[in-house]
Amino acid sequence: MKFSIRTVILKCLLFSLVLSMGCTHSGEPIDDLRVGPGGSNHGYLGQVLPWGFSVRSIEADDSVILNITPINGKGWSYEKVYQGVFFQQNKSMKDSLQIPINAGVGTYKFALKQISADTIIYTKEAKLSLSVDNSAPYVSALDVGLNGKGTDLHLEAELAAARRIKSVEVKIQSGGEIRIFDFNSPPLKGAVTYTFHEHIDMDQMPKGSYQVTLTVVDFTGEQSDVSGRFEK
Asked: From 3.40.190.10, 3.40.50.1110, 2.60.40.10, 3.40.50.2300, which CATH number describes the 138-231 domain?
């Protein structure tokens, strides 16, 4: 009878051990990588990309490096370093980054590398797809600058339109003084992304406080605008 009891106990212990081994996770050092809204692995030019990950095991002297590189070799690159000491108190990281408007559409490699003593000990990767938002055209903040003589106005902004750029209008206004300039020739016309950089002659314009409005229109008629100011 004692033998039978010992046998049952041993079998129970063995069964418990098997269950325990079966429930053990692989324990990857970097886990739960989420890229894009809802983990969609998708982002849009000119917009903020949310992302996050978890660290299971890391030393204070280690670091985690984020690298974003284009798979085809052409496009935007990004790097950021996270020190291991941060993860001693918080094992999860939620962060975000601004995707440049001129990053370039396509597929990118989103890679996290855990570094210890200048050696890569673990890599976690995901694919990130970048595209242009299909809604209204995008225009960045307008860079406005007038030279010292007050004769040359510098204008620069990044533009994007999923349905391609049809035209750009620049309106310069001060009181009743209004001048309008239209830009609708290639390579601007028909582009999906474009760096708008123009210089406008202001020599004949009177002194005053001016507002500049840049409006970009796509081939469906949707438009977006941005404004800036300067003094002459």
From this structure: 2.60.40.10
